Amino acid sequence: MVHIQDGCTIMFGGFGGIGNPPTVINGILEKGVNDLTLIGNDSGFPDIGIGRLVSQGRANRLIVSHIGSNPVAGQLMMEGKMEVEFSPQGTLAERIRAGGVGLAGILTDIGLDSMVEEGKQKVTVNGREYLLESALTADIAIVYAKKADTFGNLIYETSARNTNPLVAMAGRYTIAEVEEIVEIGELDPERIVTPGIYVDLVVQSSGVDWKWAWE
130 - beta bridge partners? Predict the structure, then answer.
């Protein structure tokens, strides 16, 4: 966790906790870093996934599509203790993808004539108006995968794949937590989703250690 410091920006994969990397999140908590900017789909639940960092006050800013599953996030936002930037889910995913492939931003008509357009540049293309949404990158990207080889090639499991492949591309330093690490050549190349060129560190997972909200 040497690369994760106070004040850094962390982008995380996952959706409602599914696909969040539990061992890495616990490591961040144990290190005690603060003043984080967190970028991802949502704020998890109070004691599930990335929500653990939010609930313990480790973040001073979120860029997410919603925080409805974590009332602690809503409370911190209303009290002015944490800034929240909302981005429509599809737009957020595209902003992350754009950051990962080196684009400066994307054009979208989602949010025109609403609060979403406040403070954003408008661009006209072929007679149609669009919002210019900036691309998103992070100091650190943390993702969760089913398997990795020792080069960092990643395979995901079903819905836990969600935003992880996009996030893996958009971090200056990407940490992949995986359930199983195998030697190079043992993964079916047709199943590899994230090439190892995007991954800087592979961490063996200790397993999910929270109880899901629906259990």
Answer: 123
- Tens digit of pLDDT for each residue in 87-110? 999 999 999 999 999 999 999 999
Tokens 């250690």 map to which residue? 209
Q: Pseudo-torsion of CA 175, 177, 181, 186, nearest 10°?
A: -70
pTM: 0.95
- CB pairs under 8 A, 24+ apart, for 87-90? 87/63, 87/116, 87/133, 88/116, 89/41, 89/65
For residue 215, the model assigns a pLDDT of 62
Q: Going by DSSP bridges, is the β-strand pair 122-125/128-134 parallel, antiparallel, or unpaired?
A: antiparallel
Rounded CA separation 141/111 (Å): 27
Which amino acid appears at position 123 of this protein? V
Contact call for residues 140 and 9 (beta carbons, < 8 A): yes
pLDDT digits (tens, 9 = 90+) for 11-52: 999 999 999 999 999 999 999 999 999 999 999 999 999 999
